[in-house]
Write a structure and sequence with these properties.
28% strand, alpha+beta, Rieske Iron-sulfur Protein, 22% helix, four-stranded antiparallel β-sheet, binds FE2/S2 (inorganic) cluster
C-alpha cells in the first residue's frame, strides 16, 4: 500500500468515526430534552401535553381514603388530587397550586380545594374563588366502575 492510499483510508475512517459519534450525541440530547419537557411547571397545567389515564381500586391501600365520602388522596406520581365529595361524587384536579406550586388539600365540608401556603381557594371544578392564585387547577374526568376508579384527561 502506498503512503497516499494509506492516508486516504485512515482519513476516511476517522471522518466516519467523528460523524457517527456526533450523530449518537445529537440523538441522545434530543431524547433527553423530550423527556424533560413536562417537568418543573407550576402553572397548574402540569402535564397538559401528557395524556392521563389510570385506574385505582378504592378498596385497596393506599386509596382507601376514597372509600369514604369526604376523603381524598394525592397521587404523587401524576400530581393529581382525587377527592370524594360528601355526595359521593369523585373529582380530580392537579394537586399543585397555581400560585407557587404548594400542594392543595380537599376540604369536604366546604366542597373545595384549599392551599394553606397563601390561602388560595379553588372550587370543586378547580376554578379559583380566592387568590392569590389566578389560574385554575387542571380538572380530570373520573368514572367509577365497581370499586375501580378511572381518572383520565
Ligand atoms: S402556593 Fe398556593 S396560595 Fe401560594
Amino acid at each position: 500500500m502506498e503512503r497516499k492510499d494509506f492516508i486516504e483510508q485512515v482519513g476516511l475512517s476517522g471522518a466516519s468515526i467523528l460523524i457517527f459519534g456526533c450523530m449518537q450525541a445529537c440523538s441522545k440530547s434530543e431524547t433527553t430534552s423530550n423527556t424533560n419537557n413536562n417537568n418543573g411547571n407550576n402553572s397548574g397545567n402540569t402535564g397538559t401535553n401528557k395524556a392521563i389515564d389510570f385506574t385505582i381500586n378504592i378498596t385497596v391501600s393506599p386509596y382507601t381514603s376514597l372509600n369514604t365520602p369526604g376523603g381524598f388522596y394525592v397521587e404523587s406520581t401524576t400530581g393529581i388530587i382525587i377527592a370524594r365529595t360528601l355526595n359521593s361524587e369523585f373529582i380530580a384536579v392537579s394537586s399543585a397550586c397555581t400560585h407557587q406550586g404548594a400542594q392543595v388539600e380537599f376540604q369536604s365540608n366546604r366542597n373545595r380545594f384549599f392551599c394553606s401556603a397563601h390561602g388560595s381557594v379553588f372550587d370543586a371544578t378547580g376554578a379559583v374563588t380566592t387568590g392569590p392564585a389566578t389560574a385554575a387547577l387542571k380538572a380530570y374526568k373520573t368514572t367509577l366502575s365497581g370499586s375501580n376508579l378511572r381518572v383520565y384527561s
